[in-house]
Amino acid sequence: MANIPDAARRELAPTGKLRAGMNLGNTLFTAKDAATGAITGVSVDVMRELASRLGVPVEFVMYSTPGEVADAVASEAWDAAILAIEAARAEKIAFSPAMTEIEATYAVHEGSRLASVDAVDAPGVRIVAPAKAGYELYLSRTLKHATLARVNGNQAAIDAFNAGEADALPGLKPMLLNALAKLPSAHLLEGRFTAVNHGIGTPRGRGAAAQFVAAFVEDLRASGFVARSIEANRVKGLAALK
Predict the structure, then answer these.
(1) Confidence (pTM)
(2) Which domain holds residue 73?
(3) Is residue 1 part of a domain?
(4) Which of 15, 47, 227, 235 stands the most exposed, by the fewest C-beta atoms within 10 Å?
């Protein structure tokens, strides 16, 4: 990828720098130091590599949730962002091939009658999830019987679940495991209701950018860049695709 098309550079860095949309709500990809404000993680490594290949500086544009990142594409506040690949988002965002895979499952209360992932989608079952998270968008499309309530962010979903307002709390399995300390008398169901794939998104209408990013991601996968970044950042539960 030594030769960078001028059109791709213009579309990926229209301000002279790559504005990378960063989702601080997914700690599998991005971690923020509370003391210094510095961010690290797989998404940081990938965006720095993309900017380096383009020969431009990178500017990190921070968001608290994936929904905020996705919504900000309408104002073209960012040029590239790592997000879960979802049909609802693809209307306004062009996605690269998938780079990673994460299993999604449910937390349920101890003593719950829900003994399997398949049992959750049943009449009378209440599910609470962060609005516009990748797995929430998936459940919005696929649930046939259970009721899905949407709240603003992971902590709000945890609070609603703990308050007994929901029977099941969906999430990315590694993040749910980390959250178990905040979920007294809860456990995770075995199996998964989906696997969430993440890729690099660019605003629709930037065809040269999308084409370049697709080739960039294929190169990262083939070279093992993503797998090395996951290992270097000591991330558990995030699998690189080859």
Answers:
(1) 0.85
(2) 6-100+197-240
(3) no
(4) 15
